[in-house]
Amino acid sequence: MNAILLMLLGLGGMFLGYVFYSKFVAEKIYKLDPNFRTPAHEFEDGVDFVPTNKYVLWGHHFTSVAGAAPIIGPAIAVIWGWVPAFLWVIFGTIFFAGVHDAGAIWASNRNRARSIGALTGDVVGRRSQSLFMIVIFLVLLMVNAVFATAISGLLINFPSSVVPVWGAIFVALIIGQFIFRKWLNLGTVSVLGVIALYALIVVGPEAPLALPETVMGLSDNATWIIILFLYAAIASLLPVWMLLQPRDYINGLQLFIGLILIYGAVLISGPELVAPAFNTATPEGTPSLVPLLFVTIACGAISGFHGLVASGTTSKQLDKETDARFVGYFGAIGEGSLSLATIIAVTAGFATLADWQAVYHSFGQGGVTAFVSGGARILQEGLGFNVGIAETLLTVMAVLFAGTTMDTGLRLQRYIFQEWGSIYNIKWMEKAAPATLLAVGSCLLLAFGAGGADGSGGLAIWPLFGTTNQLLAGLTLLVVTTMLVKLKRPMYVTLLPLLFLLVMTIFALLIQLKGFYDASDWFLFSLDLLVLIAAIWIALEAASTLTRLRKENANSRD
């Protein structure tokens, strides 16, 4: 099959989903009100609560939730064939991710911009809140520790990306001043920012930078991880308008330009998909497609981490409630488009089926490296790009997304510690600086405690990220569904995705539990069991809460 047809079907489906389905959900289900006074205006403080242009906020939200996950997940999942990955990305984006992300923004916006974790206690119950906060903390711990490892690996393997990656931070600081102080209009700032960013990408291959193999007794990988967390700690304490918003915004523009280049190259070269549509000869040890596909591809279909960003930072910057449709639902469309481009790159970016099979020789292979090499080949054949420039462009794209996710992830982890301080009346923990130190400390403890001197300890619990993340998405949908029932509005648009996620998550956890038991991996076995208990608990809480509310609604009508 030609990749052009896959591209047109995918983009066309997501476009129709945004035009029609998101409009229905926004107007008939969430009933977004342009006159509602948002928390960004009510609690404006110039640091966390900042009313923001919806296009700038979309850039922040989209690039914060995207990270490297919508590349990694699909690039691994095509081992089952490109058809299952394609269908889950497209339908997951339209009916799951968009509804989930916009719903999380709406729910938080209607509750003083509180996080989904904090909301659970009021909306569902105190028992669920404690459970939710633990799951949130685990997800953030995994995301921050693993993304630091992924970024450091890319910086080491592609030294041409170092200058543009770090240079993008200075570009963001400059354009942040121009946007916030309104020295130039948004269009002019956007053009200047993109030019600066792509100039750095061109310079990158000419000025590759690499750390020494050891720095003060630490490996280059460990050194990069420490540098990344130091940067993320500083970034999480700065006002959102100074670095977080402009960096995410310029990265969002960069992504769309990158996608235009990739899709344009596909249109010109028309590559064939060399990977099988359904892979009936998967390598030994590959788990079953159902349910593992639905936890392997999270970002790009639906991801619980999105709910954390939506309710943790995005809702604090929402200028008008109606912007939630564009920021949340269209943000999911952007991520789905990236996942679609990844599927094309890792299935049509190889010369032959044998070349593809050489990479996908076992489960877990592919990932960002396959995306970079496959995408670079498509850019070379379609647009005549130099391979070095093409690889740098795609690597920078992946690293900048992962970096913005770390920025937001550490800020969210700081919020979690501050909320715990508020819940348990620990006054010093409610302050930003101590909470940030606790967030960084917990991530470094995992990175170096489980990974030794290399600092890659986050990978130790990464096998449970997919299931824990989807469990978190289920929790978010439970909160949104409960609010809809209380408001006596149709709930099926969120209830059906909630039920699907709970079934697939519990199924996947059981399969993984057996795998960890067979491998005598008692650490992951214990964590898996903990998450499994949490999933069953949530399922029971959902059934109990929704049944009670429906009875109350029925009695009120009598």
From TrEMBL:
Keywords: Cell membrane, Membrane, Transmembrane, Transmembrane helix
GO terms, biological process: cellular response to starvation
Ranges for domain CstA N-terminal: 2-347, 365-508
Main location: membrane
Ranges annotated as spanning the membrane: 6-26, 62-80, 86-109, 130-156, 162-180, 187-204, 224-244, 256-278, 290-314, 326-351, 383-404, 432-453, 459-480, 492-510, 522-540
Entry keyword annotation includes Cell membrane: yes
Membrane topology term: Multi-pass membrane protein
A Pfam family the protein falls into: CstA
GO cellular component terms, A-Z: plasma membrane
InterPro entries xref list: CstA, CstA_N
Location of this chain's protein in the cell: Cell membrane
Family listed: Belongs to the peptide transporter carbon starvation (CstA) (TC 2.A.114) family.
PANTHER family, A to Z: INNER MEMBRANE PEPTIDE TRANSPORTER, PEPTIDE TRANSPORTER CSTA
Name of the protein in question: Carbon starvation protein A
